């Protein structure tokens, strides 16, 4: 399970270099990575938004335990 410092570092890297942040989480041969590269080439801000989405929201059940899950999340 990722702790707060790891997530903060991933978010910081995703803001500076969006594809690198996605690569660290999902690997460099994933669809998420290549989509982030494409969005970053088309515009830096869409690349950042997608990278943050991938890091924070995609597969969050694997990284957050039940007691840290937000109240609005369904089981």
From TrEMBL:
Entry's localization field: Membrane
Q: Keywords in UniProt for this one?
A: Membrane, Transmembrane, Transmembrane helix
**Entry superkingdom:** Eukaryota
Q: What is its main location?
A: membrane
So where does this one cross the membrane? 7-27, 33-58
Family listed:
Belongs to the UPF0057 (PMP3) family.
Name of protein: Uncharacterized protein
- Naturally occurring in which organism (per UniProt): Quercus lobata (Valley oak)
